[in-house]
């Protein structure tokens, strides 16, 4: 049975991107995103999720010394001259999409942002990354940097939930997926699908013991969030070796059961498409994670008792 407005089924795609070199012209990058949109539309997809920083290399991985270079990585308007072609293609194809990008506001504030664009090419929701990992200053000994605290402010929009078609969507970005609160706050707000992009290095310089577990912990975070909150999670990677940093792939569509329904096989541009049943959210929230019947926030007090 194909997707329609009553059956609460939907076809979704994680649109994974391979590396975006700092030398890439924006038009070239946009071409890659449009190609993925076209491929998704051919598969009947209604919602495409692009990664975090889907228009640029993940520049927090190095100290950007040149002011003009730094500003070149941010978008002032969305759509703007550098993204209009993507919006036009999505409108033409009647496909909604989530786009991760670096945002510069009118009053010069800088955020790591994701936007939800509906099938009419309209930005209907925006989220600014709250959990910024990394540092303000360069870590001398590290083989690569994470300077998100230097290049972005902490998001000031909270975790919003946006009605879209016959469901509700929440957005998150990269490190947000590691924090249980991200999914719980969105679930309390009624989100049925969480869309998130990530740029995740294959090694963690400050905790080398976790290097062998990077891919496991990527899926663990999203599967736990999906299951413990009865939500669909669409997680999309910017993968491959980008400006010298190896990044994981593993883009996936994860069900409220916690199962991975579809997962990327490569580290390049790749569509991970599957049909999802939104009523699985309803069933799991009725039978297992029924917040009203079983959850007791009024009793949740963490009391650190001294050892007797
Ligand atoms: N990147 C990484 C992420 O959260 C990281 C940073 C990796 C933090 C591994 C902790 C462990 O996937 C971004 N951009 O948040």
How is the topology of this model organized?
Elements: E1 9-16, H1 26-42, E2 47-49, H2 67-72, E3 74-75, H3 84-93, E4 96-104, E5 110-117, E6 123-128, H4 148-151, E7 161-164, E8 167-173, H5 180-188, E9 193-198, H6 214-228, E10 232-237, E11 240-242, E12 245-247, E13 252-254, E14 260-263, E15 270-277, H7 279-287, H8 291-294
Helix pairs in contact: 1-3, 5-6
Residues 133, 146, 174-175, 178, 198-200, 204 line the site of D-[(amino)carbonyl]phenylalanine.
CATH topology: Nitrilase/N-carbamoyl-D-aminoacid amidohydrolase
Model regions low in confidence, pLDDT < 50 over at least 5 residues: none
Overall helicity: 10-25%
Distance between the amino and carboxyl termini: 61 Å
Query: How much of the polypeptide forms β-strand, as a percent range?
Result: 25-35%
Strand-and-helix sequence, N→C?
A: EHEHEHEEEHEEHEHEEEEEEHH
Structural class: alpha/beta
Question: Briefly, what CATH class?
Answer: Alpha Beta
Number of helices: 8
Q: Which architecture per CATH?
A: 4-Layer Sandwich
Radius of gyration based on Cα positions: 19 Å
**How many beta-strand segments?**
15
Largest sheet: 7 strands, mixed
| Shape field | globular
Walkthrough of the structure:
By secondary structure, this protein is α/β, with parallel strands linked by helices. It has a single domain (9-292), classed as Nitrilase/N-carbamoyl-D-aminoacid amidohydrolase (4-Layer Sandwich), CATH 3.60.110. 24% of the residues lie in helices and 26% in strands. It has eight helices and 15 strands. It has helices at 26-42, 67-72, 84-93, 148-151, 180-188, 214-228, 279-287, 291-294; strands at residues 9-16, 47-49, 74-75, 96-104, 110-117, 123-128, 161-164, 167-173, 193-198, 232-237, 240-242, 245-247, 252-254, 260-263, 270-277. The strands form three sheets. Strands 1, 2, 3, 4, 5, 6 and 15 form a seven-stranded mixed beta sheet that branches. A six-stranded mixed beta sheet has the order 7-8-9-10-13-14, with helices on one face. Strand 3, helix 3 (84-93) and strand 4 form a beta-alpha-beta unit. The protein is globular, with a radius of gyration of 19 Å. The termini are far apart. The mean pLDDT is 97. D-[(amino)carbonyl]phenylalanine binds at residues 133, 146, 174-175, 178, 198-200, 204. The site of D-[(amino)carbonyl]phenylalanine has 9 residues, from loops.
């Amino acid at each position: 049975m194909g997707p329609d407005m009553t059956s609460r089924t939907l076809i979704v795609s994680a649109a994974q991107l391979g590396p975006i070199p700092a030398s890439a012209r924006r038009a070239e990058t946009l071409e890659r995103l449009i190609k993925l949109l076209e491929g998704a539309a051919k598969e009947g997809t209604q919602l495409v999720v692009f990664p975090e920083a889907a228009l640029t290399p993940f520049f927090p991985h190095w100290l950007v010394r040149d002011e003009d270079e730094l500003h070149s990585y941010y978008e002032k308007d969305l759509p703007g001259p550098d993204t209009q072609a993507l919006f036009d293609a999505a409108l033409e194809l009647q496909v909604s999409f989530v786009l991760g990008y670096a945002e510069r506001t009118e009053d010069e504030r800088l955020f790591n942002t994701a936007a939800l664009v509906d099938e009419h090419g309209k930005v209907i929701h925006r989220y600014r990354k709250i959990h910024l990992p990394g540092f303000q200053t360069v870590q001398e000994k590290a083989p690569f940097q994470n300077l998100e605290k230097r290049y972005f402010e902490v998001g000031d929009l909270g975790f919003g939930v946006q009605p879209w078609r016959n469901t509700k969507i929440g957005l998150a970005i990269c490190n947000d997926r590691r924090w249980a609160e991200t999914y719980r706050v969105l679930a309390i707000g009624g989100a049925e699908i969480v869309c998130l992009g990530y740029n995740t290095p294959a090694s963690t310089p400050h905790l080398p013991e976790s290097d062998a577990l990077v891919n496991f912990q990527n899926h663990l975070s999203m599967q736990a969030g999906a299951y413990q909150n009865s939500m669909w999670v669409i997680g999309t990677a910017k993968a491959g070796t980008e400006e010298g940093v190896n990044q994981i792939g593993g883009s996936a569509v994860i069900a409220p059961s916690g199962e991975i329904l579809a997962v990327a096989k490569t580290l390049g541009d790749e569509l991970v498409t599957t049909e999802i049943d939104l009523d699985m959210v309803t069933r799991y929230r009725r039978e297992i994670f029924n917040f009203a019947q079983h959850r007791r926030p009024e009793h949740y007090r963490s009391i650190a008792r001294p050892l007797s």
